[in-house]
Design a protein that fits this description.
Helix content is 79%, strand content 0%. The chain contains two helices and no strands. Helix 1 runs antiparallel to helix 2.
């Protein structure tokens, strides 16, 4: 499997995880559960940090990000 294809598959999997983590934060906030909101926000922040670490390592190894930064085409 090519590096580009692996990046596409990885990004698709991670987007699902990110979508679920964002949903969990919204649901906890809507329920007014401060503990659950903090836990779910920490989980989302950790996921985002891990993605940025992966992207930075890929940039250093291959000279390009594996996917565009969020909000960029």
């Amino acid at each position: 499997m090519s590096q580009e294809k692996m990046n596409e598959v990885f990004q698709r999997i991670v987007q699902g995880l990110q979508t679920n983590a964002e949903r969990d934060v919204r649901l906890a906030r809507a329920a007014g559960d401060a503990a659950a909101t903090a836990r779910d926000q920490a989980r989302l922040d950790t996921l985002n940090a891990a993605l940025e670490i992966y992207a930075a390592a890929h940039l250093m190894a291959h000279g390009a990000r594996p996917w565009p930064r969020p909000g960029q085409p």
